[in-house]
Structure formats: C-alpha cells, structure tokens
C-alpha cells in the first residue's frame, strides 16, 4: 500500500532513532564496568529505543487503518512503568547479594544508609 | 518508499544488538549481569517484533510484543526476588529468616 512521502520519511527516521538507542544500550551493556552502570545504560536507552520503534509503528499502522493505536500506547506506558521498577529490583538484589561496585566508583550512598540504620 | 529498506536495516541492527547482549549473558561475571543482559534481549525482541509488524503491515504482532514485554518484566522481578530471598513465592522459612 502507498503511504505519502512525508509519512515514509517520518517512520524511517523514528525507526533509525530507535535503532540508535537500542544499539547504545547494548554498547553500554558490553563496555561498562560493573552491573549497576550496565543496568543504568540498558534500562534507559533501550526504553527510548522501543518507544521510537513503537511510535513509528503507530504512525504507519494508524495511517493504513490497520490499528487504532491503543495497544502501542499500552506498550509505551507499560515500558515506562516497568523498566525502572525492574532495574531497581535487580540493583537492590545485586547489592544485597554482594556484587561489588567498580573499583573506580566514588559514591556509595546505600552503604552509608545501611550503616546508619543498622546501629 | 524507503520504509521497507530502512526497516530491513533496523532488523539487522537489532539482531546484532541481541547477539552482543547474548555475549554478555553468556560471559557476565555475576548473575545480575546475566539477568540484565537477558532483560535487554527481551526488550530488543519486543522492538524487533514491532518492526516486523511494520514490514508485514499487520497489527497482530503488536499483541505478541505486549505479551513479551509483560513476560520479560515478570521474569526480571522473579529473578530479583530469587536472588534476594532464595525463593520466588513468599511464605517459605527462608523469607522469615532473612528480612529485607
């Protein structure tokens, strides 16, 4: 089916923005030093990557009349709600299990909090 | 019509991203590293399925992506609880032994 040229370009740009963010998150997952910084890279940038791709799909399918766009919005809302929650739970579990920070890390506020609340 | 061409490139890029994340999931020094990498793979799969929905011009794949996002979040939460308490469902003696 034919779509107008401006929509074609817009969908392509949104797809490429999404790919850029997804690859950035994976690059951070590979290159950063400990689990907390890796999580910081993936949970932020991959969420925005999926949002870019979902917006492209919303524009395209909505123009073609194939989808109302509500489920795409549901995916966006769900990801914005659950990505920070999941990252927070994994970071908390990793700290409690005893995964150490990178040697070059300079601040550890949770350790100070734990020491203050144990005594 | 550049969308089919660009979406093919994006699919290849997402596949590359999944492979690199799989390297971290296999190699990762600690278990939380693996959990984060698997979560990243699931998010990338959601994006890939949505790109496939654009290429196929079909809205059915959106449901698949939504269910995969929900399952990925559930898996992450279950792994976090398992690491924290040694069990997934609360109420076992391990939970009462180690609060927090």
Keywords for this entry:
heterodimer; A: 119 residues; mainly alpha; 4 helices; 0% strand; elongated; B: 100 residues; 82% helix
Describe the protein's architecture and organization.
The complex is a heterodimer of chains A (119) and B (100). Chain A has 119 residues and is mainly α. Chain A is built from four helices and no strands. The model of chain A has no long low-confidence stretch (mean pLDDT 88). By secondary structure, chain B is mainly α. Chain B has helices at residues 3-27, 31-56, 60-85, 93-97. The longest helix of chain B has 26 residues, at 31-56.
Short description:
The complex is a heterodimer of chains A (119) and B (100). Chain A has 4 helices and no strands.
Largest interface: A-B, 55 and 50 residues
Rg of chain B from C-alpha positions? 18 Å
How large is the share of residues in beta strands of chain A? under 5%
Question: Overall pLDDT of chain A, averaged?
Answer: 88
Counting copies of identical and different chains, the oligomeric state is heterodimer
Radius of gyration of chain A: 19 Å
What are the segments of chain B in which pLDDT stays under 50 over at least 5 consecutive residues?
none
- Low-pLDDT stretches of chain A are none
Total number of helices of chain B: 4
Estimated helix fraction of chain A = over 70%
Order of helices and strands of chain A: HHHH
* Biggest sheet character of chain A: none
Return the average pLDDT of chain B rounded to an integer. 86
Label the structural class of chain A: mainly alpha
Cα-to-Cα separation, first versus last residue of chain A: 69 Å
**First CA to last CA of chain B: what distance?**
56 Å
Secondary-structure map:
The complex is a heterodimer of chains A (119) and B (100).
Chain A: H1 5-31, H2 35-64, H3 70-97, H4 109-118
Helix pairs in contact in A: 1-2, 2-3
Chain B: H1 3-27, H2 31-56, H3 60-85, H4 93-97
Helix pairs in contact in B: 1-2, 2-3
């Amino acid at each position: 089916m034919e779509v107008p040229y401006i929509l074609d370009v817009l969908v392509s740009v949104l797809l490429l923005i999404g790919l850029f963010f997804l690859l950035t998150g994976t690059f951070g997952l590979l290159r950063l030093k400990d689990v907390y910084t890796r999580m910081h890279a993936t949970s932020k940038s991959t969420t925005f990557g999926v949002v870019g791709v979902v917006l492209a799909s919303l524009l395209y399918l909505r123009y073609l009349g194939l989808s109302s766009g509500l489920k795409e919005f549901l995916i966006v809302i769900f990801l914005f709600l659950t990505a920070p929650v999941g990252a927070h739970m994994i970071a908390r579990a990793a700290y409690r299990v005893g995964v150490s920070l990178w040697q070059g890390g300079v601040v550890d506020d949770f350790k100070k909090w734990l020491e203050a609340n144990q005594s | 019509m550049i969308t089919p061409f660009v979406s093919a490139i994006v699919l290849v890029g997402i596949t590359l991203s999944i492979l690199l994340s799989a390297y971290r999931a296999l190699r990762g020094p600690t278990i939380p590293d693996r959990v984060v990498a698997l979560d990243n793979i699931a998010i990338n799969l959601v994006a890939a399925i949505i790109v496939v929905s654009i290429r196929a011009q079909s809205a059915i794949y959106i449901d698949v992506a939504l269910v995969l996002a929900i399952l990925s979040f559930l898996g992450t939460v279950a792994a976090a609880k398992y690491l924290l308490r040694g069990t997934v469902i609360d109420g076992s003696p391990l939970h009462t032994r180690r609060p927090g």
